[in-house]
Design a protein that fits this description.
By secondary structure, the protein is an alpha/beta fold. It has 18 helices and 8 strands. It has one domain: Rossmann fold. A hairpin with a 5-residue loop joins strand 5 and strand 6. The relative contact order is 0.18.
Length: 433
């Protein structure tokens, strides 16, 4: 009984630490968090728990999101630029509007026709994570000729993230034997929410992710009207209220401009546009974006259906782990993919802050925050340990290089018996709400 209460206390402490601040307080403390999935990866500062006596790392399984990128579509840059340029030509910008246009054009100059591509910041993020991986697990990476198998999404931003990560590993140990792979044939193991990669993908899933009349899209429009006043920004930028009413789709312009503003943190450019919006406006913008990610990929009303598809990715990871452990040779398995996949599999894995099930818009942001779960270069690291003379395998999971405490009893947490953790994941996949 004492062990149970000690374990319960550990869980409660972990949960209280995770959300020690409200989402508003966190965004006020660092306005870049208003970027949600654009948020830059933060270097971990925690001290790690030593492995139980005699256990040493023998294997790592990793899933990493690509690093910092440009926005995903060229029109996301083109739209606000075109509106501002036309207003400039028509003489409809205020003095402040002209200044904002100048700064937006600086962003456009480095972003034009680069939609979806990895930025130099994204490259550095993966180089740094790889370097820390070697430093954190020297017993494994000091081995001569260590096998590293790498699988990437076919998207260029993921391929470049993979290259940066592998190059950094090779710099630390030139003897590594790195095998790299990327193919449409294997995308179902990395990202299976598109029919090109998953021929059996249900039409209902496509409607959830990209449909125009889904529940979450209707809710986003409802919350946008309820919580965001777009007029303040428009009146600051344009000098003619009738022009605003007749020539500008105010809500669309506001949203595209807000997305551009929070994406600037992903670029190597000395431009700041946060003054265009108040902190409250950016916070409310983040809330609707956070809800959209939650509704599509986390434990919202669609999630039982989503689990049937995305569990294939977690099952593939488990199968690869068992295969590599059975081989008995120290090795590393790396995967490079997308935030949507981390969002989708994290509830099945039982990661703290990822498992809430709710439809209440006003509380989701206090229980599930996209910038904590899948910032740029987000990663899941599963490190496996063995002890000489023992068949027992322990695993420690790190989410964005922070140790994870699971809802599993363990005398050695955050180190868990692999069979226990695997059983927990399989149970979660088979018993989705």
């Amino acid at each position: 009984m004492k062990k149970f209460f000690a374990f319960l206390a550990l869980i409660l402490i972990s949960a209280s630490t995770l959300f020690a601040q409200t989402s508003r307080e966190e965004i006020i403390a660092d306005i870049n968090r208003a970027g949600g999935v654009y948020y830059g990866y933060t270097t971990p500062t925690e001290n790690y728990t030593p492995a139980p006596k005699g256990f040493e790392p023998v294997y790592i399984s990793h899933y990493g999101r690509h690093g910092a990128r440009y926005m995903t579509h060229d029109y996301m840059y083109d739209y606000p630029v075109n509106v501002l340029n036309k207003a400039h030509a028509d003489g409809k910008l205020t003095e402040y509007g002209e200044d904002v246009r100048r700064r937006v054009l600086e962003v456009y100059a480095v972003s034009e026709r680069r939609a979806g591509e990895l930025t130099q910041k994204g490259i550095r993020q993966h180089e740094e994570i790889a370097t820390r991986m070697v430093q954190n697990f020297p017993e494994l990476f000091k081995q001569k000729g260590l096998q590293v198998d790498v699988l990437s999404s076919v998207f260029p931003r993921c391929l470049m993230s993979m290259a940066a990560f592998c190059d950094a590993l090779k710099t630390q140990n030139p003897t590594l034997k790195i095998t790299r792979d990327a193919s449409d044939a294997k995308m179902e193991q990395i990202h299976n929410l598109k029919p090109d990669w998953n021929p059996t993908l249900p039409e209902d899933i496509l409607n959830v992710v990209a449909g125009t009349n889904t529940i979450w899209r209707q809710k986003v429009l409802e919350y946008d009207k309820k919580y965001i006043d777009h007029s303040r920004v428009l009146n600051n930028l344009f000098n003619d209220k009738e022009y605003i009413r007749t020539a500008i789709k105010g809500v669309d312009f506001w949203r595209y401009l807000a997305e551009l503003v929070v994406n600037v943190q992903c670029l190597d450019i000395e431009v700041n546009l946060y003054d265009v919006f108040t902190t409250d406006e950016l916070y409310e913008h983040w809330r609707t974006e956070n809800f959209a990610h939650y509704a599509k990929f986390a434990r919202y009303v669609y999630y039982p259906m989503m689990t049937q598809v995305t569990s294939k990715m977690l099952k593939a990871i488990i199968a690869q782990i068992d295969k590599d452990l059975a081989a008995g040779t120290p090795s590393v398995s790396l995967r490079f993919g997308h935030d949507t996949c981390i969002f989708a599999i994290s509830p099945m894995m039982g990661l703290p802050g990822c498992c809430v099930s709710t439809t209440d818009y006003d509380t989701i942001n206090e229980k599930w925050r996209n910038y904590q779960i899948a910032p740029m270069a987000a990663n899941l690291q599963m490190i496996f340990y063995r002890k000489k003379g023992s068949d027992e395998v322990l695993v420690r999971v790190m989410h964005n290089e922070k140790e994870v405490i699971f809802d599993i009893e363990s005398k050695t947490a955050p180190y868990y018996r692999w069979e226990d953790l695997k059983g927990y994941w399989i149970h979660n996949m088979n018993n989705t709400l």
